[in-house]
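INTERNAL TRANSFER SHEET
From: sequence group
To: structure group
Subject: Spermidine/putrescine ABC transporter permease

Please process the attached sequence and return the structure record in the designated field. Keep the field labels unchanged so the import script can parse them.
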Amino acid sequence: MSIGARIIGWGVLIFGLLYFFVPLGGLFEFSLKARRGVYSLDAYSRVWADPQFQATFGYSVMMALATIVIGIVIVVPTAFWVRLKMPWARPYVEFMTLLPLVIPAIVIVFGYIRLYNTSSFLPLTGSVLGTNVLLAFGYTVLALPYMYRAVDTGLRTIDVATLTEAAQILGAGWFTILSRIILPNVVPAVLSGAFLTFAIVIGEFTLAALLDRPAFGPYLQRIGANKAYEPFALSVIAFGITWGCLALIQLVSRFSKAAPARF
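Return from structure group:
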């Protein structure tokens, strides 16, 4: 590589870093100005002490965990079966998993409200538990593109057919093959999808707001409309959560590169 190309490459990298971090630095700096004339963490302390923050954040964490479990239960067997028995269906499955990226969340949630309102055959919106279940499945739909691609990428790194055939020769059933052979070999990929799902659920607004659930996304919107410095502190916290999830994905990917297939 020539010196000129190297200089251009470093210039583009530095420009991209400045373009990304300078606004975030301004955001963080403004969040420290809650006390007149000095920098302080007053905005952060008020946010952490707010009972609504604790309740909404805890609710979103629980919904994220439920969404991850539902996603694993749905995606891992589907991706495994498509790769093993139905490779011809892979383009159609990939197309279906991409639909949440092109269909707005507001369209999805209005469809849910239309299908599962109190006058429908399955009135999920008529109870708190039913609405929570509906919200969890809605989050699963939004996270489906990321979870499916993470699991499918993990399945590409192992010989699914050989592992399945060997397990069947030893007398293992389908549940045993999935739970004790396939799943342990794609744990890093599942964790990557899980961290992305967690980041999506924590900041999601549309589904939770229109289903009237006490989630973290609507709380961010309410604080932004009524407070001055707390919304910036919450934005920094939300960025930190997202970066933490991305860092965990990188960490898991690094440790999984040298891991042999388990059987």
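Handover comment: DSSP finds twelve helices and no strands in the chain. The chain has two domains: 1-31, 43-255.
Transfer complete.
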